[in-house]
Every structure is written in structure tokens, then in C-alpha cells.
Fold this sequence. Notes:
Helix content is 48%, strand content 13%. The chain is of the alpha/beta class and 327 residues long. The longest helix has 35 residues, at 258-292.
Amino acid sequence: MTVEEIFRTPIFPAPLAGVTDSAFRLIVRELLEEPEKKNLLMFSEMVSANGIRFRNEKTLAMLRTIEEERPTAIQIFGSNPEVCAEAAKFIEQLGTAAAIDFNLGCPAPKIVSNGDGSALMKNPVLVGKILSAVRKSTTLPFSVKMRSGFDENNLNAPEIAKIAEESGADFIAVHGRTRQQFYSGAADWNEIAKVKAAVKIPVIANGDVKDFDSLDKIFEVTKADGVMVGRALQGNPFLIGRLLKYFLTGEKISPPDLFMREKIMRKHFEYLIKFKGEHVGLREMRSHAAWYTKGLRGGAELRNKFNRAESVAEFEKFFAEITNFGG
């Protein structure tokens, strides 16, 4: 997949830990129309480069994709240039990834305390070494996802973006918040605009895109080549298709009704069980069910039921109740 092909469908689901696994990616793709169904680049949850080096079973499971969910980019994280390069090479050799993305944006304390994710934005020299090593190790399209900076006193995304460009990255995604903000406050799209002005490679804008209006505004402010949608997708896999349709044709498709929502929840649950087994699938579906039912009248009652469900049959019984509630 070439960079030009990637940007033919420039509204991307962001990589989200605990969300954008194979089950979710399949759901999103199944809701798309042709040719977007075939062409949209999806991103994996972030995968540890160290985990790949040591062939950790859970890590390797995150690299597995099936044909129906591709093309998929695999996002890796780490802070050792050699290890990150090995991981990228291993991923390419698997023959199933369409691209490789490197994480410079994760704000999670566990990741940052290890010097990974957004912590790397405090060390531009190391960033350059890592990205150059990864670039040399793979022929796949290579992207970098970052934040506007580590904190408000270090808004260095343009500097990091230039390093990424010089290191051979094909495109960049920028979340308009600092690490210190996590997900609070508003994303500063002007900081993304500074990145767009600083580099010649394509830039994807990320942060607070949740509807048609915000999609228009982020493109207007940032002049970005694409947009990445994150938390607004939780319990809302329909959104990517609606935004893509609007971007490509100007048509505003209505949100799904309760019957469609129930249908998609059932399918999502089916995929989780298929890929992860009943025990893990049940546990993870509780979070997804909470997102799917957020904002519904009586949703709190439903969420309590899902949280108490301990079998596939119980979950399926509660799915049927969704259509009894309104927005």
C-alpha cells in the first residue's frame, strides 16, 4: 500500500489501547461502503517492541490479523533503537501489515515511566535514532504518532516532526494535547497547524473530532492532509463511515437506530469471543457495552446488567433489551 493510496480515504480510526483490536477493526470495516471498505487503513493497538523481541505470546497475538480486517498498520512502542528496528523487521516479515506506526504519544504513567510513548518527546536525539533505525529496517510505509508536546512548556511537536521527516517517516499524526493534559481540556488544533507548516510529508490531525462540524473545523484550522478519530469511536464504530461519506460526498448520514446498535453489539461480542475466548471476551465486552449504551435513556440500568453478566447467554439476553430504550 503506497502513501498516496493511504490518503485516498483520509479519515482514520486512531490506535486505542483496549479498543481497536481485531474485533473492532472488523466491525468498522464491515460498516463501510466500497471502495472505503477495501482501502481504509486501520491501526492496531500499540504493541511492545520488547514483547516482540522476546516473542511474548500476548504480544504476538496482537500482531495477528485476518484478511477481512486489512489493510492494517501495526503500531509499536519502545525506546531502544535496535529493539524497535528488530520489531519493525519482524512485523514486515510476517507479511500481513500494510504499514508500521511508531508511538510517541501514549500518556499512560506505566508507559511514560519506562521512557516510552510521549516521554520520548523530551529526548529528540533519541527519537531521531529510533526512527532512523526503524526506517532502515523496513520497506513498509512508516508513520509516527505524537502529541503537541510533553507539557505546555515543551510544545516541540514541530521539532519532533522535522526529525521524523528527516529520519524517513512517510507521514505523521499529531494529537493536539500535551502528555500532561492526558485527555482533559480541549485539543489545540493550532499546534497541529504548526506541525503541518513545518514539514512537507502528510500530516494527520487528531483530537476532539466527533461529528461533521468538528471534522470541517479541524481541517480548516490545521490544513492537515487527513484526520484521525479516537475516543469518539468508543461504542460508536459507525462514526468513521459517516465521516468518510460526508468528506467524500457531502452527505450527512444519520446515526444508527437502536435496532442497528443492537445488531452491531451482538456482532462485536461474537468477534470478541471468537478471537479471545469466552472468559476474556465477556470481560472486555463490559467496557464496550458501557460505551455503546452511553447516552441512552435507561442506559445506566443496562450497564449494571452487563457488568453482572457472567455468561454468553446473559449478555445476549440483555442485548435484546436495548431496543426498549430511547436516546
